[in-house]
Specification:
2 domains, about 325 residues
Length: about 325
């Protein structure tokens, strides 16, 4: 085991985050990710813990990670408000790819001090026989390599990636696991698996889903999640306050709708009360000529009874007598 590997293991045991270790040792994201891969290849199991401020902590364990809850991840939310950006359908490798827009999104994250990005699937285009003429890159491996080149690496920003039907085709046809390939090379590209995932936030949860194929339908998340964000459709829409469509970040004109949806992303603010999500504020931000424009804005009350208690609590504090406030 190399000296740098021993130092990293020591720093992890002392409680430093991967972000802090990378900075202290002046390593690139790729360099640290490669060493973490070597640590796992040496027989160690790393259990990662994620926080809403973009920090990732890795702890070495000596047991197998056999989690019966497949595609479930927890993000430890430190504050009452958790803000995240949602993107989807990059289709890297297609002639309609727009990797330049990833830079725009990451600039937005940095400007607004947002540390969490969710990707709703179809990271690569893959190779569909009926879409060969629409390919810019001819293999899934080459497309994956381009993802690593164009996906920005910004300190304290984590991208949680769900993988869709175009990504899943690599796994079923070629045995190429895109999720594993990217996560092993970039610790900030966290895999949520294929098709659907549950993200636990405090005592609540949200779901992310992307259709795969008829033989591999997504699991019904409605009983396990307060709200569900869906990729694949290349549009943004709120349906029945339970399902939110994530707009596309590629310029594919072949969509089966009466109009061509605008490329863009979602800026979502989750407001917690009593450790559950009581309200969600959503901004649909369109990208026109690489400029961000507000396309739509809405608020969803997920639990009316909780939001009512939150409102009453705020009113009590607002009108509490001054001497009573001071005594408390």
């Amino acid at each position: 085991m190399s000296e740098i590997t021993k130092i990293i293991i020591k720093l992890m045991s002392e409680g430093l985050s991967l972000n802090a270790i990378q900075k202290r040792l002046s390593l690139s994201n790729r360099e640290l990710s490669f060493i973490l891969k070597q640590i796992k290849s040496s027989g160690f199991n790393l259990a990662n813990t994620y926080f809403s401020d973009g920090q990732v902590y890795a702890k070495i364990t000596h047991s197998l990670n056999l989690n019966p809850e497949n595609n479930v991840i927890r993000i430890n939310v430190r504050d009452r408000i958790f803000r995240a950006v949602f993107i989807s359908d990059l289709h890297i490798g297609s002639i309609y790819e727009r990797p330049d827009l990833l830079k725009v999104v990451y600039s937005y994250l940095k400007k607004h001090d947002i540390h969490t990005l969710f990707n709703g699937g179809d990271v690569i285009e893959n190779v569909y026989e009926d879409r060969i003429e629409q390919l810019k890159i001819k293999s899934d491996l080459a497309q994956a390599r381009k993802v690593l080149r164009v996906y920005p690496s910004v300190p304290d920003v984590i991208s949680y990636n769900l993988y869709g039907n175009h990504d899943y085709k690599s796994l079923t046809d070629n045995g190429f696991d895109l999720a594993r390939y990217l996560e092993e090379r970039r610790y900030d590209l966290v895999s949520l698996g294929y098709g659907s995932s549950i993200i636990k936030l405090k005592d609540d949860a949200i779901g992310i889903t992307h259709d795969l194929n008829r033989s591999k339908r997504r699991k019904d998340l409605t009983d396990n999640a307060t709200i569900i964000f869906k990729g694949h459709s290349h549009k943004a829409k709120n349906r029945e306050n339970k399902l939110i469509y994530i707009p596309s970040l590629s310029d594919d004109p072949f969509v089966s709708y009466e109009y061509r949806p605008l490329m863009g992303f979602l800026d979502v603010e989750f407001i917690f009360f009593e450790k559950v999500i009581s309200k969600i504020n959503i901004k649909h931000l369109a990208l026109v000529d690489n400029e961000i424009r507000l396309a739509n804005e809405e608020s969803i009350t997920t639990r009316p009874e909780v939001e009512q208690r939150r409102t009453e609590s705020r009113m009590v504090k607002k009108f509490k007598p001054r001497n009573e406030i001071n005594n408390n």
